Amino acid sequence: MKLYFKKLIILFFLLNSYYAYSSNTLRVCTEQSPPYVESNRETGEVNGIDIDIFISIFNKLGIEYTIEEMPWARCELSMDAGVVDVGIKVSKNPDREKFLYYPENWVWETVFVLFTNSEVKRKYKINSYDDIKKYKLTIGVIHENSYNADFWKAFPWVDKAAQQYHPLIEPSVNVESNLKKLSANRIQLYPQDKSIGIYTAKNLYLSNITYYDFVLFKKYYYNVFSKKSKFSSDKYQNITELMKIYDLELIKFKKTKSYENIFKKHLNAKSK
């Protein structure tokens, strides 16, 4: 019940902000995930691999847009309500497909590994979820992130409606907070995209962060479109028409050197 009222309060404020933009301005949300999405919280400026790809395509489409970085739970709720039109860096799951349109083409593919700290890696040999349960190690997650079906099968919710996680799961708001907890051994494991985890740990100067070599799972990430979006412009009558044109442009863009160079630019960037 408390969670329900909390969502209502958040939705109230989101709906108020809805009217600050005209329907032909595309409202876009995403979460902090360096090097794919990096936000300067002082200036509100957002950049990164996903942002560069988004800008390259949507500028070509002649779309006016605003991009806001926010906690994932708020971004997801905003798209569900139609307050936000597009989400950047979103993986696919059945619950999200109820309120989101997924284009045919994904933006990039990733592998997830288990991040840990050097002390835990020396002490425990981990090759499966069963090993984690055997040693009773605490796993950090980002609240409302989907991971994959096998992960939640191994660590099922106690009560999802009440947001009660499995006893070994500890939720947090973003990548940085989980890696800091991991470095301080407040959690022992953290599943994350390999490049995001390595990049963020490096930029946070967390020298004791490492990872287990085996791949947990692979995922595809998309730019997604809200089914409740009211977006309309002179060039595109509605959000589904925009999505179809975007999908065609994405296919072309992924075949260019520009797409490849965006990854090189950010993945080869020096630590701050």
TrEMBL record:
Domain (Solute-binding protein family 3/N-terminal) ranges: 25-270
Keyword Signal included in the entry's annotation: yes
Entry keyword annotation includes Nucleotidyltransferase: no
InterPro entries per UniProt: Solute-binding_3/MltF_N (IPR001638)
Family annotation (SUPFAM superfamilies): Periplasmic binding protein-like II
Keywords linked to the UniProt accession: Signal
Gene3D superfamilies linked: Periplasmic binding protein-like II
TM regions (residue ranges): none
Signal peptide range: 1-22
Protein name: Transporter substrate-binding domain-containing protein
